[in-house]
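Reviewers of the previous submission asked for a worked example of the structure-prediction workflow described in the proposal, so we include one complete record here. The input consisted solely of the amino acid sequence. No template or homolog information was supplied to the procedure at any stage.
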Amino acid sequence: MSTLRLTARLALAGLVRNPGRTAVRVGVVAASVALLAGMLLFIASSLRTASASAVRSVPLDWQGPTASYAKDKSAAKAVASQAGIAAALPAATAPFSGATHVGVAGHTATGSGSLLAVPPHYSLQTFRLLQGSLRPGKIVLDQQMAATL
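From that input alone, the workflow returned the following structure tokens.
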């Protein structure tokens, strides 16, 4: 006899001998499964809602590496066509091994880092400038590098 048939016969025998107990067992198992499914659906929905509402108002500066400026422009154009994207502009990064400054306070140096080159019409909402402004042909230092130098 197959396992399924044996299980069905045992369940039927339990139902015939003690229908009240079997009905309570079935009800408890059904309620447990329903509560577990409800909790899982609630958690999944809450995570999705919390993530969406937390990120919705935050501008995101996403960088995708490309091999050339032409591919960078093509990637920016492809990203800009997607829903929910406010702007997508090509930008470039260049690594450097260090920076130094010699002044009244003496000689200071920083470690390695990266330069980010952006077009003049790049969204300033991405950057939080503490002092000065972003102008074509000029360099803006991040707070940590400025403090070091």
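The longest strand covers residues 92-96. We consider this example representative of the routine output the project will generate in years two and three.
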